[in-house]
Amino acid sequence: MTGHEHAHGAPSAPTPDAGSSALRLTVTLALFGALAGAVLAYTYQKTLPPIRKFAGERVEIAVKEVLGAPAKLDTLYLVGGKLSKAPPAGVDPLEAVKVFIGSNAQGEQTGAAVEEAAPGFSSDVHLMVGFNPSTSALTGFKVLAQTETPGLGDKIVKDSSFAKQFPGKLANPLKGDKNPTTDPSTVQTITGATITSKAVIKVINKAVETWKPRLDAYAKGGGQ
Amino acid sequence: MISNLAWIFFSTLLINNFTLAMFLGLCPFFGVTSKVDTGWRLGAANTFVLVITSISAWALNTYVLTSAPYLRTIAFIVVIASMVQIVEMIIKKTLPTLFRELGIYLPLITTNCAILGLALFQTTRKYNLVEGIFFAFGAGLGLTLALSLMASIRERMDVADVPVVAKRMGLVMVIASCLSMAFMGFAGMGSG
Amino acid sequence: MTTDTVVAADAAEPIVPGAPPPGPLWLDFWRGIAQDNPVMIQMLGLCPSMAVSNSLANGIGMSAAVIFVLVMSSVLVSSLRKVIPNEVRLASYILIIATFVTISDLVMQAYFPLLSNTLGPFVPLIVVNCIILGRAEAFAGKVKPLRAAVDALGMGVGFTVALCSIAAFREVVGNGTLLGYHLFGLNYEPWVFMIMPPGGFLTMGLGFLFMGWWGERKKAKLAEVTA
Fold this sequence. Notes:
The complex is a heterotrimer of chains A (about 220), B (about 190) and C (about 230).
Chain A: H1 22-66, E1 72-79, E2 82-84, E3 98-103, E4 109-119, E5 124-131, E6 138-145, H2 155-158, H3 160-164, E7 175-177, E8 186-188, H4 194-220
Parallel strand pairs in A: 7-8
Antiparallel strand pairs in A: 1-2, 1-3, 3-4, 4-5, 5-6
Chain B: H1 2-15, H2 26-31, H3 36-64, H4 72-94, H5 96-102, H6 113-124, H7 129-158, H8 169-184
Helix pairs in contact in B: 1-7, 3-4, 3-6, 3-7, 4-5, 4-6, 7-8
Chain C: H1 25-33, H2 46-51, H3 56-79, H4 89-111, H5 113-119, H6 130-140, H7 145-175, E1 177-178, E2 181-182, H8 197-226
Antiparallel strand pairs in C: 1-2
Helix pairs in contact in C: 1-7, 3-4, 3-6, 3-7, 4-5, 4-6, 6-7, 7-8
């Protein structure tokens, strides 16, 4: 990365002005920077709508899946420790901490869905957890992100029989067992992926423990 | 909170080692590891730059980039390049022997994917200032560990009977594969 | 380092020190794939090669982004080579490259969101991919835009060939699939090791071992001929 010598009679070799002043360098770089900024700002404006749309859709699909396609979906945001219908001021609704409430055609609450995460075997396991706030019964879960061991830990995504156990189980708290079980608060962990399975259980318990009190308080307060 | 920080530090150092599991910082890993001394010294220099980068990235993310997130890549790379320049000047003044030893490799830290990678991962995971610093320390020490291990193995290999086809890169890659496999054993450390 | 042989038809194109001698354009293109393959010969751009090579789809996506950034920045650097002052050469190059990387990252996030999710932060990391800066410094900043574009395209294709070979190998052996299609039936237990980090190193190692063997064979043949 050193400067090269200009060969004699090489007319197209670049020759900077004799003694490029610091001013000229600064101006050139500033100009480039401004141009780059303008181009990027334009690109950003054009790509922002599709990006936001996909992010919102992804969450919505996950919520609908864990709540069993409810007739109606509402969103409640966490503002100052309590739940409210409006997002906190100055926070992007996509980024705000929130819970999704599903209701059936009669207007009764069927479940709540939240995002939660906990460390697994070799990565953080992110789930969308659906549960009934009054009974702590699970309606399902969906894995949003994980990089566990391929072929073993990632069975929480690939093995549908694992996920099928969860709807109806009680998270008071949920437990894991190596052997098949009929206990309403216990699920069977995946052979060879105990730690990842336990991470899923941990996330579910964390979600229910954190959000059940908040939802109970909101219900008691009569809603705003 | 403490356990969270400890988890971040140890998982970055061992389980998700920047070099052996996340494939960052490979240029020095393959280029500068013929001697153990150079290896760990470069690792130390990298750690220093990583910590400073982590703090700068956090500051940029929190105060500057909220209104223009598309400038993130440019802003990060500019900050990293400047930091490396400053670190180079400091090392030149305070530790001239080290400066002479590291030579050309110091400016190459700028293009080290690990530095920019750290800033980007930190942004995606939304670490705060303290978490970011622990992350940077874990990453830097992980780099140093990987560099030192590779260098010490290569020093031994220098006097071993290596088949000609495996000389240099072939052998180094296979050694890296073994090291990476060994580090996989750390997975699951924090749980159970 | 460069020889002074000038092809008669290109006598008008002057010889620039540090850059390959002027010749037919297809040679500029082919050089990036064969003699100076950025991954296998120059050993640049190893980080993304191994990180995103666990599936062929990822490899193709990354290669497309790299080709875009490589060609666009080489053309721009070459067009501006007489305008950029020498002292801020590298800074300007990095600025140009970073701009194109951000553009490709934004476009990927908007129109290929699943790919963008999987590739993660490795798309912005293209900016420190030594291939691009190296090419801008060694070649694009010294020659005319057309040559720079062809060379960039060659290097990009060379990178694609290397990356996609590794990715295809790792996906077939490590997952039993190619581009998502199961090749060996659903009950096949693949060699999962191959799509994990050590498998990446091992595959590259096999590639380099092959290159070593190839090189030794050429040397032996040469020795036979001259002996």
